[in-house]
Amino acid sequence: MSELISELEERVKYRIEGEFCANCSAKMERMLSATEGIGETTINYATKTVVLPPSRVVQAQEIMEKIEAGVKLVPIHLKQKVESPDNTAAVNKENQWRITRIMIACALFAVGLVFESRWKNSSWEVMEYLVYLTAYFIVGYKVLAKAVRNIFRGQLFDENFLMSLATVGAIAIHALPEAVAVMLFYSVGEYLEERAVNRSRNSIQALLNFRPEYANLVHQLDVIKVDPEEVQVGQQILVRPGEKVPLDGEIVNGNSFVDTSALTGESVPRKVQVGNPISAGMINTTGVLTVRVTKVFAESSVQKILDLVENASTHKATTEKFITTFARFYTPAVVVAALGIALVPPLLSDGNFQAWLYRALTILVISCPCALVISVPLGYFGGIGGASRHGILIKGANYLEALTDLRTVVFDKTGTLTEGVFQVVEISPAKGYTERELLEIAASAEAHSPHPIAKSIREKYGKDVQDSALAGLLSYEEVRGQGIRASYNGQTVLVGKAELLEQVGISIPRLMVDKGPGTVVYISVDGGYVGQLTISDRVKADSPAAIARLNQMGMRTVMLTGDNQAVAKAVAEELAVSEYHSDLMPEDKVSWLETLSQAKRQGKIAFIGDGLNDAPVLTRADVGIAMGGLGSDAAIEAADVVIMDDQPSKLVEAIQIARYTKTIIWQNIGFALGVKLLVILLAIFGMVNMWMAIFADEGVALLAIMNAMRVRWYHKQGHKQGDRFTVPASRAVKVAAR
Predict the structure, then answer these.
(1) CA-to-CA distance for 287 and 292, rounded, in angstroms?
(2) Is 583 one of the catalytic residues?
(3) Catalytic residue among 86, 158, 248, 412, which?
(4) 134-144 residue pLDDT tens
(5) PROSITE patterns, alphabetically (predicted)?
(6) Considering the domain 423-536 in this protein, what is its CATH number?
């Protein structure tokens, strides 16, 4: 019952204050997920946030404190930014004291090294212990305290326990310099590691830092600066040149150019004028705009993007799950191996116990898995954040990873490969009807339809349908996937595909069926055929190059459309699509996707559509990709990946970002495991000491973190040839398409 209540309870995002390592984060996540009433939980280590049911926060706090004392859960409100804890004065003061301790320990360590030979085997030998142990406790007392506390809590095999065990063992065999060096270099490495992680966290957060801070609310004759959350739907706001658009709305006064790069990744400003929609996150560059708000801030484009990117860590990639599981068993396995190395060889060969113990302690130093546990999620989060900067929203690391395994890309046609902007190019009335009469009948029947084809018919009619022809419209019914059935001036009117007319026994003259490429709308009145309209669409400018690039990458490209054979063939030939299927109902697209999925030999299938009427297919595909998500709630909700503008070429860019991210992640995994295994092998044969081991451990972690940070620099490296597409004007020809 408590689990059911927890599932129904709305979860709240909390910031985790306090310092904790990536390995501890994984432990917290695992324990929270296993707790009844909390359920599956993911900690976003990159932003130090977690989403929890409010009624379980106290319980979650207790669980997390068992693993890392001092952590605190603080609720995040929309008005707050997810800021890194190291920005606070208290943390800065702690860092200063931390550096001071390290410097004092370094000075004492240097003194010990200089005078060690004089103090040994003399009456001053006590000074060796005093200097070294003072340096050891100054820099390592927190590590020792955490290790002791965790032992009593049953939390063994973390880095504090390993460092404490290794250094205390070194002191026991009188390897004082090694003990101090390990604790000192570990502390320095941890400090540098935290700084690197925080820098990466801040840089990733900067990618998302386009939340508008205020809105200019028009109040009577005055303009008041308020928080965007205080503005209600229907109110008007003023957006001056250079300001961010704070809320989604419609322009009611003024015209300007807006910078959409924060939302779409495109640097070319877009012209907007009265009647145009405008989205939060855009930047007004020239004129003054008056905007009528259509959505509250919580539902605005900018907030949805922020939520999607920040919550993307809840969908973990297979690689990330593997590393988390691997880390659980890696450290205990190394500890057991170290114990065996310390005990077995001396017992079997009468070897020097102290020498084998030293080798075992050296192995303990290298056994912390933090390099892997930190770098993998940071790499994925950086890839998702970098993609969002290019106007590509990826809802989780699992989808980012899936993009690297794509082998088949299935496209919807209208609004995806074509512009979806229709116009009536031919009017063919039957005998007894004029072109104007045929248009009036069709426009009246299509008066309520939101479909782009219906809109093109009404625009061609030219008159105000609401005031004239609509007066005779008595009833209206949409026949799913086929057209419109209406009652106009007491007559039954059918407007749509040939099948719609043929189902009720209306014959269409053979010469009029599929006369040529183009979307054909057939019209009947009271059971008689009265004519047809031919409507054309045109291919998007960068669709040919996008398909060409996918073909070059070895992808199988497929187009599914509800349009007729002639239209589908014309578009497929223009774009060089591998295969196409026409005359499909929405459920037929799902069937074809399942057929393609069953037939695939390897790799995953992506479906890319406009997100408005393709939700079933988007859901069925391995990766559902919605085009033109800017302002489209349906697109953002239904798809796994959302391309914010209408460029098919962004799919290629998304695949390349995903591959780049995966390459870096596997570089980190291979490098970290390779170095650790090499050092462990060398330690077994006595070829490395503790100094080298701690350098290898902390050095690997730092290098892995810095390598993971390269993902966010993808846009600075310049795109490879083929990433951006320029299509000759001659290729952007009009084709008859729907």
Answers:
(1) 16
(2) no
(3) 412
(4) 999 999 888 88
(5) ATPASE_E1_E2
(6) 3.40.1110.10
